[in-house]
User: Fold Ribosomal RNA small subunit methyltransferase I from Pseudochelatococcus lubricantis.
Amino acid sequence: MSEDKRAPVRDPGSATPLPPPPGAAPAAASRFTAFGLAAEAEPIAPGLHIVATPIGNLKDITFRALGTLAAADAILAEDTRVTKVLLAHYGITTPLIAYHEHNAEQMRPRVLARLEAGEALALVSDAGTPLVSDPGYRLVEDALAHGIKVTSNPGPSAVLTALVVSGLPTDRFFFEGFLPTKSGPRRARLAALGDIPATLVLFESPRRLSEMLADAADILGERPAAVARELTKLYEEVRRDTLPALARSYADETPKGEIVVLIGPPPEGAKALSQADLDARIETALARHSVKDAAAIVSAATGQPKREVYARALQLAAARDEGGEGAP
Assistant:
Protein backbone atom coordinates (compact mmCIF):
# COMPACT_ATOMS: atom_id res chain seq x y z
CA MET A 1 0.00 0.00 0.00
CA SER A 2 1.32 3.45 -0.92
CA GLU A 3 2.33 5.76 1.91
CA ASP A 4 0.30 8.50 0.16
CA LYS A 5 -3.01 6.93 1.17
CA ARG A 6 -5.67 8.59 -0.93
CA ALA A 7 -9.33 7.74 -1.05
CA PRO A 8 -9.78 4.79 -3.44
CA VAL A 9 -12.28 4.86 -6.28
CA ARG A 10 -14.37 1.67 -6.41
CA ASP A 11 -15.82 0.00 -9.46
CA PRO A 12 -19.50 -0.66 -8.54
CA GLY A 13 -19.20 -4.15 -9.99
CA SER A 14 -16.04 -5.05 -8.09
CA ALA A 15 -14.91 -5.15 -4.47
CA THR A 16 -11.39 -4.19 -5.53
CA PRO A 17 -10.53 -0.47 -5.23
CA LEU A 18 -9.26 1.24 -8.35
CA PRO A 19 -6.29 3.62 -8.15
CA PRO A 20 -7.22 7.18 -7.18
CA PRO A 21 -7.51 9.61 -10.08
CA PRO A 22 -4.62 12.02 -10.69
CA GLY A 23 -4.75 15.04 -8.43
CA ALA A 24 -7.19 13.48 -5.99
CA ALA A 25 -6.96 14.89 -2.48
CA PRO A 26 -5.31 12.61 0.09
CA ALA A 27 -7.69 10.91 2.49
CA ALA A 28 -7.38 11.32 6.23
CA ALA A 29 -4.60 9.24 7.71
CA SER A 30 -5.57 5.87 9.16
CA ARG A 31 -6.09 6.22 12.88
CA PHE A 32 -6.99 4.30 15.99
CA THR A 33 -7.77 5.33 19.55
CA ALA A 34 -6.24 3.87 22.70
CA PHE A 35 -6.34 5.15 26.28
CA GLY A 36 -8.48 8.01 25.06
CA LEU A 37 -5.80 9.24 22.68
CA ALA A 38 -5.90 9.21 18.89
CA ALA A 39 -2.89 7.70 17.14
CA GLU A 40 -1.90 7.70 13.49
CA ALA A 41 -1.22 4.26 12.04
CA GLU A 42 2.01 3.84 10.12
CA PRO A 43 1.69 2.51 6.57
CA ILE A 44 2.08 -1.27 6.23
CA ALA A 45 3.57 -3.28 3.39
CA PRO A 46 1.38 -4.98 0.80
CA GLY A 47 0.52 -8.59 1.54
CA LEU A 48 -1.49 -10.71 3.95
CA HIS A 49 -1.18 -9.75 7.62
CA ILE A 50 -2.28 -12.41 10.14
CA VAL A 51 -3.46 -10.48 13.22
CA ALA A 52 -4.16 -12.02 16.63
CA THR A 53 -7.05 -10.42 18.51
CA PRO A 54 -8.25 -10.67 22.14
CA ILE A 55 -9.92 -13.87 23.31
CA GLY A 56 -12.13 -11.95 25.74
CA ASN A 57 -10.49 -8.91 27.30
CA LEU A 58 -10.24 -6.14 24.71
CA LYS A 59 -7.22 -4.70 26.51
CA ASP A 60 -5.14 -7.67 25.35
CA ILE A 61 -4.75 -6.26 21.83
CA THR A 62 -1.22 -5.14 20.87
CA PHE A 63 -0.33 -1.68 19.53
CA ARG A 64 1.10 -3.33 16.44
CA ALA A 65 -2.20 -5.12 15.82
CA LEU A 66 -4.15 -1.87 16.17
CA GLY A 67 -1.85 -0.14 13.72
CA THR A 68 -2.13 -2.99 11.21
CA LEU A 69 -5.92 -3.12 11.40
CA ALA A 70 -6.16 0.65 10.97
CA ALA A 71 -3.71 0.81 8.05
CA ALA A 72 -4.95 -2.21 6.09
CA ASP A 73 -6.99 -1.74 2.93
CA ALA A 74 -9.54 -4.21 4.33
CA ILE A 75 -9.93 -6.74 7.13
CA LEU A 76 -10.95 -10.35 6.45
CA ALA A 77 -13.08 -11.39 9.42
CA GLU A 78 -14.54 -14.74 10.44
CA ASP A 79 -17.66 -12.96 11.75
CA THR A 80 -17.87 -9.27 10.88
CA ARG A 81 -20.33 -8.67 13.73
CA VAL A 82 -17.77 -9.82 16.29
CA THR A 83 -14.90 -7.88 14.74
CA LYS A 84 -17.00 -4.70 14.52
CA VAL A 85 -17.12 -4.60 18.32
CA LEU A 86 -13.32 -4.62 18.53
CA LEU A 87 -12.89 -2.02 15.79
CA ALA A 88 -15.51 0.30 17.29
CA HIS A 89 -13.83 0.09 20.68
CA TYR A 90 -10.59 1.38 19.17
CA GLY A 91 -12.09 3.79 16.65
CA ILE A 92 -10.96 1.83 13.57
CA THR A 93 -12.98 2.28 10.38
CA THR A 94 -11.23 -0.11 7.98
CA PRO A 95 -13.74 -1.97 5.74
CA LEU A 96 -14.62 -5.52 6.74
CA ILE A 97 -14.94 -8.54 4.44
CA ALA A 98 -16.57 -11.77 5.65
CA TYR A 99 -14.21 -14.74 5.24
CA HIS A 100 -15.28 -17.97 6.93
CA GLU A 101 -15.62 -21.71 6.34
CA HIS A 102 -18.91 -21.31 4.47
CA ASN A 103 -17.65 -18.83 1.86
CA ALA A 104 -13.89 -19.44 1.83
CA GLU A 105 -13.82 -21.36 -1.47
CA GLN A 106 -15.76 -18.59 -3.21
CA MET A 107 -13.92 -15.68 -1.59
CA ARG A 108 -10.34 -16.95 -1.77
CA PRO A 109 -9.78 -16.15 -5.49
CA ARG A 110 -11.13 -12.63 -4.96
CA VAL A 111 -8.89 -12.09 -1.96
CA LEU A 112 -5.84 -13.37 -3.84
CA ALA A 113 -6.63 -11.03 -6.74
CA ARG A 114 -6.62 -8.06 -4.38
CA LEU A 115 -3.37 -9.18 -2.80
CA GLU A 116 -1.75 -9.63 -6.20
CA ALA A 117 -2.88 -6.10 -7.08
CA GLY A 118 -0.74 -4.82 -4.22
CA GLU A 119 -3.20 -4.38 -1.40
CA ALA A 120 -2.49 -4.93 2.29
CA LEU A 121 -5.17 -7.14 3.83
CA ALA A 122 -5.48 -8.18 7.47
CA LEU A 123 -6.90 -11.56 8.49
CA VAL A 124 -8.52 -11.99 11.91
CA SER A 125 -10.57 -14.72 13.57
CA ASP A 126 -13.38 -14.15 16.05
CA ALA A 127 -10.87 -14.38 18.88
CA GLY A 128 -7.23 -15.30 19.34
CA THR A 129 -4.68 -16.23 16.71
CA PRO A 130 -6.03 -16.93 13.19
CA LEU A 131 -5.53 -20.31 11.49
CA VAL A 132 -6.08 -22.18 14.78
CA SER A 133 -9.44 -23.92 14.20
CA ASP A 134 -10.47 -21.52 11.42
CA PRO A 135 -10.29 -21.55 7.58
CA GLY A 136 -7.29 -19.24 7.24
CA TYR A 137 -4.79 -22.01 6.51
CA ARG A 138 -5.81 -22.45 2.86
CA LEU A 139 -5.62 -18.73 2.24
CA VAL A 140 -2.09 -18.55 3.63
CA GLU A 141 -1.09 -21.62 1.62
CA ASP A 142 -2.42 -20.12 -1.60
CA ALA A 143 -0.98 -16.67 -0.88
CA LEU A 144 2.49 -18.14 -0.43
CA ALA A 145 2.08 -20.19 -3.61
CA HIS A 146 1.35 -16.94 -5.47
CA GLY A 147 4.46 -15.27 -4.09
CA ILE A 148 2.52 -12.98 -1.76
CA LYS A 149 4.20 -11.94 1.46
CA VAL A 150 2.53 -13.23 4.63
CA THR A 151 3.26 -11.50 7.94
CA SER A 152 2.27 -12.56 11.45
CA ASN A 153 1.18 -10.11 14.16
CA PRO A 154 1.43 -12.34 17.25
CA GLY A 155 -0.80 -11.97 20.28
CA PRO A 156 -3.51 -13.71 22.31
CA SER A 157 -4.06 -17.46 22.01
CA ALA A 158 -6.59 -19.51 23.96
CA VAL A 159 -4.32 -22.56 23.64
CA LEU A 160 -1.32 -20.99 25.37
CA THR A 161 -3.39 -18.96 27.84
CA ALA A 162 -5.09 -22.13 29.08
CA LEU A 163 -1.89 -24.15 29.09
CA VAL A 164 0.07 -21.81 31.36
CA VAL A 165 -2.66 -21.69 34.04
CA SER A 166 -3.57 -25.40 33.89
CA GLY A 167 -0.89 -26.62 36.27
CA LEU A 168 -0.01 -29.36 33.75
CA PRO A 169 3.35 -29.93 32.02
CA THR A 170 4.11 -27.23 29.48
CA ASP A 171 7.36 -28.54 28.00
CA ARG A 172 5.40 -30.63 25.48
CA PHE A 173 1.81 -30.16 24.40
CA PHE A 174 -0.37 -31.43 21.57
CA PHE A 175 -3.23 -29.30 20.25
CA GLU A 176 -6.10 -31.45 18.99
CA GLY A 177 -8.85 -28.87 18.64
CA PHE A 178 -12.41 -30.23 18.68
CA LEU A 179 -12.99 -33.97 19.09
CA PRO A 180 -15.72 -35.75 17.08
CA THR A 181 -19.21 -34.90 18.30
CA LYS A 182 -20.44 -38.51 18.59
CA SER A 183 -19.27 -40.74 21.40
CA GLY A 184 -17.99 -43.68 19.31
CA PRO A 185 -15.62 -41.71 17.08
CA ARG A 186 -14.70 -39.48 20.02
CA ARG A 187 -13.65 -42.44 22.17
CA ALA A 188 -11.66 -43.88 19.27
CA ARG A 189 -9.83 -40.58 18.83
CA LEU A 190 -9.12 -40.31 22.56
CA ALA A 191 -7.66 -43.81 22.49
CA ALA A 192 -5.41 -42.79 19.58
CA LEU A 193 -4.25 -39.72 21.52
CA GLY A 194 -3.67 -41.68 24.71
CA ASP A 195 -0.02 -42.60 24.15
CA ILE A 196 1.18 -39.12 23.14
CA PRO A 197 3.76 -38.10 25.78
CA ALA A 198 2.46 -34.55 26.09
CA THR A 199 -0.30 -32.46 27.61
CA LEU A 200 -3.36 -32.63 25.36
CA VAL A 201 -5.16 -29.36 24.58
CA LEU A 202 -8.71 -29.55 23.24
CA PHE A 203 -11.60 -27.22 22.50
CA GLU A 204 -15.12 -28.25 23.48
CA SER A 205 -18.60 -26.77 23.39
CA PRO A 206 -20.44 -26.28 26.70
CA ARG A 207 -23.26 -28.64 25.74
CA ARG A 208 -20.88 -31.54 24.96
CA LEU A 209 -18.42 -31.00 27.81
CA SER A 210 -20.02 -33.47 30.23
CA GLU A 211 -20.13 -36.32 27.69
CA MET A 212 -16.63 -35.59 26.46
CA LEU A 213 -15.16 -35.65 30.00
CA ALA A 214 -16.96 -38.94 30.76
CA ASP A 215 -15.49 -40.52 27.63
CA ALA A 216 -12.03 -39.15 28.41
CA ALA A 217 -12.19 -40.52 31.95
CA ASP A 218 -13.18 -43.96 30.64
CA ILE A 219 -10.48 -44.08 27.99
CA LEU A 220 -7.58 -42.24 29.65
CA GLY A 221 -8.19 -43.05 33.31
CA GLU A 222 -7.01 -41.11 36.36
CA ARG A 223 -5.01 -38.45 34.58
CA PRO A 224 -4.75 -34.92 35.93
CA ALA A 225 -6.73 -32.45 33.86
CA ALA A 226 -8.09 -28.92 33.78
CA VAL A 227 -11.15 -27.21 32.32
CA ALA A 228 -10.53 -23.54 31.52
CA ARG A 229 -13.58 -21.39 30.84
CA GLU A 230 -14.11 -17.74 29.88
CA LEU A 231 -10.37 -17.03 29.85
CA THR A 232 -9.39 -13.35 30.35
CA LYS A 233 -13.04 -12.43 30.99
CA LEU A 234 -14.79 -11.34 34.19
CA TYR A 235 -15.95 -14.85 35.10
CA GLU A 236 -12.76 -16.71 34.20
CA GLU A 237 -12.65 -20.14 35.83
CA VAL A 238 -10.15 -22.99 35.82
CA ARG A 239 -11.08 -26.29 37.49
CA ARG A 240 -8.20 -28.67 38.11
CA ASP A 241 -8.64 -32.31 39.15
CA THR A 242 -8.46 -35.82 37.74
CA LEU A 243 -10.50 -36.66 34.66
CA PRO A 244 -13.03 -38.79 36.61
CA ALA A 245 -13.47 -36.03 39.20
CA LEU A 246 -14.01 -33.39 36.53
CA ALA A 247 -16.46 -35.68 34.74
CA ARG A 248 -18.46 -35.96 37.95
CA SER A 249 -18.21 -32.21 38.53
CA TYR A 250 -19.76 -31.38 35.17
CA ALA A 251 -22.16 -34.36 34.99
CA ASP A 252 -25.22 -32.25 35.77
CA GLU A 253 -23.87 -28.86 34.75
CA THR A 254 -23.83 -27.06 31.41
CA PRO A 255 -21.30 -24.24 31.73
CA LYS A 256 -21.31 -21.09 29.65
CA GLY A 257 -18.62 -19.57 27.48
CA GLU A 258 -15.61 -20.73 25.51
CA ILE A 259 -13.96 -23.87 26.93
CA VAL A 260 -10.48 -25.35 26.72
CA VAL A 261 -9.86 -28.84 28.14
CA LEU A 262 -6.34 -29.90 29.04
CA ILE A 263 -5.33 -33.47 29.89
CA GLY A 264 -2.00 -34.44 31.42
CA PRO A 265 0.40 -36.82 29.67
CA PRO A 266 0.39 -40.55 30.45
CA PRO A 267 2.43 -41.60 33.49
CA GLU A 268 6.05 -42.57 32.93
CA GLY A 269 6.21 -46.08 31.54
CA ALA A 270 2.53 -46.04 30.62
CA LYS A 271 3.19 -47.22 27.07
CA ALA A 272 0.55 -49.72 26.02
CA LEU A 273 1.08 -53.10 27.64
CA SER A 274 0.53 -56.42 25.97
CA GLN A 275 -2.54 -58.26 27.22
CA ALA A 276 -0.30 -60.90 28.76
CA ASP A 277 1.69 -58.29 30.72
CA LEU A 278 -1.47 -56.59 31.92
CA ASP A 279 -3.01 -59.90 32.99
CA ALA A 280 0.15 -60.82 34.88
CA ARG A 281 0.04 -57.56 36.82
CA ILE A 282 -3.64 -58.02 37.63
CA GLU A 283 -3.11 -61.63 38.76
CA THR A 284 -0.32 -60.53 41.09
CA ALA A 285 -2.49 -57.81 42.59
CA LEU A 286 -5.48 -60.15 42.96
CA ALA A 287 -3.38 -62.49 45.05
CA ARG A 288 -3.35 -59.91 47.85
CA HIS A 289 -6.22 -57.50 47.16
CA SER A 290 -9.89 -57.35 46.28
CA VAL A 291 -10.89 -56.90 42.64
CA LYS A 292 -11.61 -53.21 43.19
CA ASP A 293 -8.34 -52.51 44.95
CA ALA A 294 -6.32 -54.62 42.52
CA ALA A 295 -7.78 -52.69 39.57
CA ALA A 296 -6.98 -49.36 41.22
CA ILE A 297 -3.39 -50.44 41.94
CA VAL A 298 -2.73 -51.73 38.43
CA SER A 299 -4.40 -48.72 36.80
CA ALA A 300 -2.30 -46.28 38.83
CA ALA A 301 0.89 -48.20 38.11
CA THR A 302 0.40 -48.61 34.38
CA GLY A 303 -1.69 -45.60 33.38
CA GLN A 304 -4.29 -47.92 31.86
CA PRO A 305 -7.95 -46.81 32.22
CA LYS A 306 -9.31 -47.95 35.56
CA ARG A 307 -12.63 -49.11 34.14
CA GLU A 308 -10.94 -51.35 31.57
CA VAL A 309 -8.55 -52.80 34.17
CA TYR A 310 -11.45 -53.42 36.55
CA ALA A 311 -13.45 -55.25 33.85
CA ARG A 312 -10.47 -57.45 33.08
CA ALA A 313 -9.84 -58.10 36.78
CA LEU A 314 -13.44 -59.31 37.14
CA GLN A 315 -12.92 -61.74 34.28
CA LEU A 316 -9.67 -63.09 35.72
CA ALA A 317 -11.12 -63.37 39.24
CA ALA A 318 -14.16 -65.24 37.94
CA ALA A 319 -11.97 -67.66 35.97
CA ARG A 320 -9.79 -68.25 39.00
CA ASP A 321 -12.80 -68.91 41.24
CA GLU A 322 -14.13 -71.44 38.71
CA GLY A 323 -10.82 -73.26 38.79
CA GLY A 324 -9.92 -72.37 35.21
CA GLU A 325 -6.55 -71.43 33.83
CA GLY A 326 -7.53 -67.82 33.21
CA ALA A 327 -9.90 -65.73 31.21
CA PRO A 328 -9.57 -65.68 27.44
The radius of gyration is 27 Å.
